[in-house]
Amino acid sequence: MDLYQNKYRIPSTRLQNWDYGWNALYFVTICTANRECFFGKIRDGKMITSKIGELAQKYWFEIPEHFPFVKLDEFVVMPNHIHGIIEIAKTNDERGNVTGRDDDGRDAKFCVSTPSPQPPSPQPPSPSRLSSPSSPKNKFGPQSQNLASIIRGYKIGVTKLAKMIDYNWGWQPRYYDHIIRDDISYQRIKNYIKNNPKKWNEDKFHT
């Protein structure tokens, strides 16, 4: 924890020199405040969503309506968090003529290939970065077209109605993100999300 202007702050753990508006697949986890089970409960390995859980699901699938450059992949609502894969897939015009390439010249977006016939046994992915609305301003692309703006819009949308259902409702201020780099990682994370309800008792977010 650093001291800045006589105030302590938590340094950003986002990947440096990476523009979160670049075309890529992002694994995102967002928790409720204090990991309270606002979204429902697990029964016999299946998620039973509450009214707020239904909102969390509804607004997630509406993200592309507000961000046309977004494609959604695997997603699940759990009792106190959500997991989802977001693909940012901007056209050249939407990228503002930004190449969107890594330093080695490859396109930043990972194009999903055909799954391997025998993928490795899935292991719960450990979210690699914890992002926050208070993180330093992105020095790259437009702030309205990056991962943080997508998550912020989603959280606001859910909160507006969730507060009317339960006054104590709230999100954890931060969220976890992981840039999916290859097909093996993609398949592992996709399977992890799909099987999450069945393994709730083993989940690191279980309360």
TrEMBL record:
At the top level, the lineage of the source is Bacteria
**What Gene Ontology molecular function terms does this protein carry?**
sequence-specific DNA binding; transposase activity
GO BP terms: DNA transposition
Q: Which residues form the Transposase IS200-like domain?
A: 21-196
Which Gene3D superfamilies does the entry link to? Transposase IS200-like
Region called Disordered, residue ranges: 94-143
Q: Return the SUPFAM superfamilies for the record.
A: Transposase IS200-like
Basic and acidic residues compositional bias: what residue ranges? 94-109
Which residue ranges have biased composition labelled Pro residues? 116-127
Q: Which PANTHER family match?
A: REP-ASSOCIATED TYROSINE TRANSPOSASE
User: What's this protein's name?
Assistant: Transposase
User: What species is this protein from?
Assistant: Saccharicrinis fermentans DSM 9555 = JCM 21142
